[in-house]
Amino acid sequence: MISRKALIGKSFIDPTASIYGSSVIEDECYIGSFSLIGYPARDTLIKILERAFTPNKSGSNYIDFPTIYDISEGSRIGKNSIIRSHVVIYEKAILGKRVRVGHHVLIRENSIIGDDTLIGSNTIIDGDVEIKNRVNIQSGVYIPPKVIIQDSVFIGPRVVFTNDKYPPSKRLVKTLVGEGAVIGANSTIIAGIKIGRRSVIAAGSVVTKDVPDEVVVAGNPARIIMSRDEYEEKKRKYETEDL
Q: Is this model's pTM higher than 0.85 or not?
């Protein structure tokens, strides 16, 4: 099903995919099987229900499926992007050019994804998230609202960000990941943290306070163990040693 309001460029749309509302899909995109583009957010679903159960002039409260598909504000998919199977992208989400999205990914409303970004399978981007350009997000990552990720960040599999210091509270706080940072697998980033430019978070770390630029932290709670220069030297030796 494709909304009558959608604008579709010269792209491949799998017959089982659904395109809602005023979605825009630019040229040379691939939309995989059973994916939902521009899926209605909660407030839009409430409007749909109100219309569905409010009798019209004829006394009927029936809304046909094309009308339901048209109501969403839609999302935008930039040129040459790949959206694999069973992906759900909510309305008011914007994806840049050459974005690659794995299988079973959820991207909620008001999320902005920059150019040349990779999003691994089973990742959840839970709305009101800003991800810049050339970001590499591996599989199974959870990113809640109010997280900002700068250019060229690497996020390993199963990393979890948080946005509430005393859950469940009424105050959600921002978390910022600086340009070129590396976050290792299974790390947990506590709400309100600033991760510095080109810093490295070792696998399995729990980051409870701000991380300076150009350092490596590890442990629970994470502490500085070396500089980024030392890390790069160790990586260089590792990459060149005989296996």
A: yes
